[in-house]
Each structure stands twice: as structure tokens, then as C-alpha cells.
Amino acid sequence: MAAFLANVGVNASHRVRSPLDDDGRFRLLPIPETRPWAPPMLRLPEAWGDRAVHLDPDLESSSPTYGDNCRRAGRAFSLRRAAPGDVILFLARLHPTNGGKQPAFFLVGELGVTDVLPDVTRDPGPGWWDYNAHVRRSRAGAPWDSFWVFRGGPSSRLYERALPFSRAEADRLFGGAWHWRPTRTDLQTIGSYTRAVRRLPEPA
Fold first, then answer.
1. What is d(CA 82, CA 198) in angstroms, rounded to the nearest whole number?
2. What is the pLDDT along the chain (204 residues), one digit of tens a residue?
3. Mapped to the 3 state alphabet, what secondary structure does 165-203 carry?
4. Which is nearest to 5 in space by CA: 96, 66, 71?
5. Rounded to two decimals, what is the model's pTM?
6. Residue in 110, 67, 105 with CA at minimum distance from that of residue 88
7. First-to-final CA distance of the chain
8. What are phi and psi of 21, to 5 degrees?
9. CA–CA separation, 175 vs 115, rounded Å?
10. Does residue 199 contact residue 81 with C-beta atoms inside 8 Å?
11. How many other CB atoms are there within 10 angstroms of residue 142's CB atom?
């Protein structure tokens, strides 16, 4: 079994923030789509108004999925090696609702891969992938641009409480290979290293 670490949800470039309560409960908010809303795309009015949103991963539907442009986007190249039996762990930047605390990274969920739909260049017809954000976007008029969709099994879920992912966790998982420059905050360093999906070393 291989494990992959994917950074998801809104980030520092967005005006919307994913909130974190003092007890570790959180809400993972999706990024907005660049295309105008059209069915079957989704909207989240309380966060993004009339803009379409890219709900990916979708871990709370009856058929959990995660999609990415593994063929075209360098950030997702490593996921081309993902196969049934592997797990994708999701990392997100969360903002404490307590104003005295700074944002940080947390593990927020996982998808246990049971099936893969690779290199989607045309509508695959109805199937377990129907509710994935990439499929929704393309059915609304965007190109079928060789994206991949991963299906999650019973272990796939958002965690009830967020798990801190700090310098200590990064060093433990990646064997101290990351460079923590004094001119950058730990938050910046983690964000930089996880901009691309990373395959965890085997011992991790």
C-alpha cells in the first residue's frame, strides 16, 4: 500500500477561510471554479455567493471521489502511480475561530482508493464518478482534459477532528528531508512542499 499527501481546500490566496474550532472540529471549504456556474456544477452561497465551487475531494457523498489533472498538471504527476489499495491523505490550511491563534495545516480526511478512472477525454457516461467536481465541470461545458478520478471505499471520510500537521509531523513522515529556512515560517515551508501531491516514503 502506498500513501499520498494532497493539499486541498481554500488557501492563503483566497478570501474565504476554512474554520477550525477550539475542540478540533472544522469545516473544509472548497475553492471556487474559474468558470461561471452551470448545472451540474455546485454552488456554496454562504461562502462563495453565486460562484461555482470545486468540491474535491467529495468525501461525504454515497460515492466518495477525488480528481486531479495527473497527466497535465505537474503538481499531480505522482498520483499516476496510485492504485486500488492505496490511500490519499488530505491536508488543509485551517483558520482557528479563536482570533488569538494563527492558521496552520491539518490532516482533515482520507480516501482509500478502490478504483481509478484515468485520462478522461470524453464523457464516460453514468457511473460512480458522476458527482466528482471534474466530471461536473466538464459536463457543464469545460474541456475533458485528461483528468483522473479516484474512487474511495468505506474507509474514505472527513475526520471528525482535524489532526495537526506541523514541522514535527513533516520531519517524521519525510525523514527530515525538508529545508526549514529561517527566512520562512513553518506554514510557508509546509505550503511550499505540499503544493504538489507527495508520495510518502515507504516506512511512513
1. 11
2. 899 999 999 998 999 999 999 999 999 999 999 999 999 999 999 999 999 999 999 999 999 999 999 988 888 999 999 999 999 999 999 999 987 789 999 999 999 999 999 999 999 999 999 999 999 999 999 999 999 999 999 999 999 999 999 999 999 999 889 999 999 999 999 999 999 999 998 755
3. CCHHHHHHHHCCCCCCCCCCCHHHHHHHHCCCCEECCCC
4. 66
5. 0.95
6. 110
7. 11
8. -85, 165
9. 30
10. yes
11. 16
Looking up cell 474550532, which residue turns up? Answer: 21
What grid cell was written down for 193? 512542499
Residue type at position 187? L
DSSP the chain: --EEEEE-S--TTSS--EEE-TTS-B--PPEEPSSPP-TTSEE-HHHHTTSEEE--SB-SSSS-EEEE-TTT-GGGGGGGG--TT-EEEEEEEEEESSTTS--EEEEEEEEEEEEEEEEE-S---SSTTTT-HHHHHHHTT----SEEEEEE-TT-EEEEEEEE--HHHHHHHHTT-S---TTS-HHHHHHHHTSS-EEPPTT-
Question: Is the distance from CB of 30 to CB of 16 less than 8 angstroms?
Answer: no
